[in-house]
Design a protein that fits this description.
Two copies of one chain form a homodimer.
Chain A (H helix, E strand, L loop, with lengths): L15 H15 L6 E2 L11 H14 L15 H12 L11 E4 L2 H7 L10 E5 L3 H9 L6 E2 L4 E2 L3 E4 L17 E5 L11 H14 L2 E5 L25 E6 L1 H4 L7 E4 L5 E2 L2 E2 H12 L5 H9 L3 H27 L4 E3 L5 E5 L6 H11 L2 E2 L1 E2 L10 E5 L4 H13 L1
Parallel strand pairs in A: 1-15, 3-6, 3-7, 7-8, 8-9
Antiparallel strand pairs in A: 2-10, 4-5, 9-10, 11-12, 13-14, 14-17, 16-17
Helix pairs in contact in A: 2-9, 3-9, 4-5, 10-12
């Protein structure tokens, strides 16, 4: 008789963004006259850049022609894309990452969710708190987290690393040594970044203890300050202890196109086993490559015109971030983020819980944000706003919040 | 200190098609003057149909326009695609499957590989032998198969169901009751099909024993005979015990475009838990939807023009299948398949092992096929040829084999 994976029962409630979506849909259908502005889910709103559209059309035409048609892609990605990524994202920054250490995929969410599979069931994970839910949930499903403590709102066998206003929303090196350390910088949800010397401390800590750092750099393109590392591989020794996840979603508006990649250096070994080989085997068995046309679109992101066009798009979002930050500060809110990241992390007013503030904002201002509690217990009393809206709506949302 | 998933070490050798690819590359680089014809990996060669190309261009244009741009897709697929699938693939055949029982994905390989995650670690799996390697390998990775017995070439805790010439390459109901039963019809690699009354027996068996059937119908579009079911949901009671996987890869040449779907009826419950909900949660946590443009391409497959164009493409492949079958029969080979499937399953000559025959064929005829042993011990002394080549190459390959 078949049985289910009982670990799924340990997951508390449903996935954060599904819950938000449901609440918003219910509100909208009850109030069809109200214009709801979404600054909640981190989804982009600007159309794909012309250079990317051009590459897509070209690739589509190739797929319609016998001589240039492409069937199965190489499991790990086309060389044309792996090469340009290695060169432009890593080698140009002094990171010695080669093309065959790049694994192209359909997005960082999938890779962040799937990566835990190649590690043993007894690895203890550490996560920032607040944190992007996928890291924890995917480990719950795999049985690596123990049960959920309703009162503490934590899984018993996970090491939570509080990121608070006091630490500039950076985690501190944990006393109990984790096996797998999830770090996300620029951070979702707080928008915080880590300076190179601070990240170097984590790399040294991981190397000293035999831990692996799972480094989510999906928001790398939003880094604007000088001394902020774009890749963990800028740190000395990182190739022996780190895996990095990247995404085209927020870099170039690919949320609906699906493209990302994971970097696993060949020298990363555990007990003599190449982690690179394990992931290659995983990809070969359970994955069939990203679509050719989408990989060509990814290549266009690195062209001169593509680069310039996406820089303009990111500029638009970062101007939104400035508008939100300044408006809310004027209105007396305490907040951070929004400088090297498209997220603004604000303190809820009057000790409202974050879901109370979510409902309050939805009902009174018709603005959707993301409740901090959805990212972990230290997200309580915080609220995430994103800079991905269009200009007009962003300005209107800020005005509405200021009027409250 | 981090540790790896030790189950990966139980996987014997590397993935079948990677090994073939490596051998062929080595041969080609050693003999650059020879023209190697590939009838090995089941990859299509005809370009995407005009109607699909048209839909792709239209969708790409939408992505370049602010008013019609689409960001994150719904996790489970766009309604426009789920609706047409439910209607055309199921309801039109009398199967009561609704749109919200369709989970759109980037391909059947991913879904077949990932589905085991939602089941407990102690479920015992049964597979046809020979079998598509993904079913077994994904369960090895999850620790559900026990260790590999080199001598028997089998995992100790897997129920293998021999599919031999004596049974028409169909499995027989196993004595030991499995929890999860993988069935693939039309079959990869043997090309065999099951009649409806025979499939009904399996559904009854599963319902009686509380087993779940994981039904891979990726080659459904190749069914040409009357009494062969296109979906397991044509059988009575299947909604209480079966999950079905479908793919656009072989139906419409999407191997490089990536689109598939999984059907999980809401009434499929295990211990009162909805399997549909588990898979939805899995998708929500670890997956971000198939690209919008690819889902629009999928929709075009069901249009009147699209339908006609892909029927013509399948006709071309099936004519290849006829050419291979007749040619090899003439040459005295024993074979099956090729009628309701794009695969021809031939007996190797002179008791050559299937890898011996692979090397022999590559070196003497410069033709690539797939060694039956790669699909399981009962695949030994068999060899798979596919009908996906182009006409000219297929004819030439058959001539070369006949000359041996």
């Amino acid at each position: 008789m078949a049985s289910i994976n009982q670990n799924y029962r340990k997951l508390p409630g449903s996935y954060l963004f599904s819950t938000i979506g449901k609440k918003v849909r219910e509100y909208e259908s009850a109030h069809p006259d109200r214009k709801v502005i979404r600054l909640g889910i981190g989804d982009v709103t600007q159309p794909l850049a012309p250079e990317i559209i051009k590459a897509l059309h070209l690739a589509v035409d190739e797929m319609g022609n016998r001589a240039t048609f492409r069937g199965y892609a190489p499991d790990l990605g086309y060389d044309f894309l792996r090469n340009v990524i290695a060169k432009e994202d890593f080698q140009s920054r002094g990171c010695e990452i080669s093309a065959d250490e790049i694994f192209v995929s359909d997005g960082a969410k999938c890779d962040c969710g799937n990566i835990q599979e190649i590690f043993g069931p007894d690895n203890k994970i550490a996560v920032q708190d607040p944190v992007y839910p996928v890291y924890v949930d995917s480990n719950v499903m795999a049985g690596r987290t123990g049960t959920y403590d309703e009162k503490l709102q934590r899984f018993r066998d996970v090491i939570y690393m509080p990121c608070t206003a006091e630490t500039g929303f950076a985690p501190e090196l944990p006393n109990e040594v984790p096996d797998l350390i999830y770090l996300c910088f620029p951070n979702n949800p707080t928008g915080a970044v880590m300076k190179k010397e601070d990240l170097q401390e984590w790399v040294d800590y991981a190397n000293k203890n035999g831990s692996v750092i799972l480094y989510d750099a999906a928001y790398e393109a939003y880094i604007h300050e000088e001394d902020v590392p774009h890749s963990i591989f800028e740190c000395e020794g990182a190739k022996g202890c780190a895996i990095e996840f990247r995404s085209f979603s927020k870099t170039a508006g690919f949320t609906g196109l699906r493209l990302g990649f994971t970097v696993i250096p060949k020298e990363l070994k555990i007990d003599g086993v190449s982690v690179h080989d394990l992931w290659a085997r995983r990809h070969g068995t359970k994955y069939n490559g990203a679509p050719y046309i989408v990989q060509r679109a990814g290549e266009a992101v690195y062209s001169e015109a593509g680069r310039q066009q996406i820089a303009e798009q990111i500029g638009v979002y970062m101007e939104n971030a400035r508008i939100i930050s300044e408006g809310l500060k004027e209105a007396g809110y305490a907040l951070s983020g929004g400088v090297n990241a498209p997220y603004i992390w604000m303190r809820t007013p009057d000790r409202m819980t974050s879901w109370e503030f979510f409902d309050y904002l939805l009902e009174t201002a018709n603005v959707v944000g993301t409740p901090g509690a959805g990212f972990g217990p230290h997200g309580e009393y915080y609220f995430r706003l994103t800079a991905f809206g269009d200009r007009e709506n962003t300005i209107e949302a800020v005005e509405r919040i200021k009027r409250l």
